[in-house]
Amino acid sequence: MKKYAQVANFNIVFGEDEKPMLDYFDTVIYPAFTSDIKKVSDGNEYLFKNVEISEGVGNKYILTGQFVKKTILEIKSDINEEGELVEKDEKYSAAPYSSFAINLMNHRMIYVPNQKGSPTLANFRSSVKYVISNYIKEKNKDVDEKNKIAYALVNIVGIPSAKTMDDLLKNVDKINKLTLRFYPLNGDLDFSEVFGVITRDMREEVGNGEIVFKSPKSINGVKTVIEKAAGTIDPILQVTTKGKSKATLKDYELSEKYELEFNDNSDLEDESSQIINKMSTIDTLNFSNDSHQEIYERNKVKIIPFVKK
Question: What is the pTM of this model?
Answer without folding.
Answer: 0.86
